[in-house]
Amino acid sequence: MIGLVRRDVAYIYDLVEFDYEERSPVLVRSGLDRKLRLVGALPIGLRLIGNMHKHLGAPIPSRVDEDMFLKYARGGGQHAFVIYTVDPEDARAFTVRDGRVIEIGCEVRALEEDEELSSIRLRISLDVRACFPKSSSIFELKLLLANALCRELEKQVGLPKMCSGEEEISDVAKLVEAGLASVRSYMPVDVEASWSPGLFYRFYVDEGLGDKELIELVKKALGQDIDVVGQDVHEGIKFLRVQREDVHGGDRALEGPAEEGGDEGPPPPVPPDVLTSDMERLSSRRSDEEDRSRLWGRGPRGCRSRDIGQDGHKEDNNS
Question: Does residue 142 surpass a pLDDT of 90?
Answer without folding.
Answer: yes
